Amino acid sequence: MAIYLFETRSLRDRLSPLTENKTILELLAGGISILDAWTFNNQDQGTVTFSVITEDFLSDVSGEDRCIERGDYLVFAGLRPVALNTLFDAKQGSGISLGAGLITRQNDKEDQAEQQVLAVRLKEKLAISDIRNAVINQADPNKALFTLLAPQKIRWTEAREVRQVFHPEDLLHFAGADIRSAIDFQLAKGGPFLDAKAIEASGNKIRGSHEVVIEQSAEVHFAIFNTENGPIYIGKNARVMEGCLIRGPLFLGDNSTLKMGTKLYGPVVTGSDVVLGGEIKNCIFHKGTNKGHDGYLGDSIIGAFCNFGAGSGGSNVKNTAGMVRVYDAALQDYRSVGQKFGALMGDYTRIGVGTQLTTGSNIGLCCNIFGLEMPPRHVRSFLWGTGHNLTDYQIEKAVVHIENWLRFKLSSLDKREIQILNHIFDQTGRRR
Question: Which of 7, 197, 274, 403 has its CA 20 to 30 A from that of 219?
Answer without folding.
Answer: 403
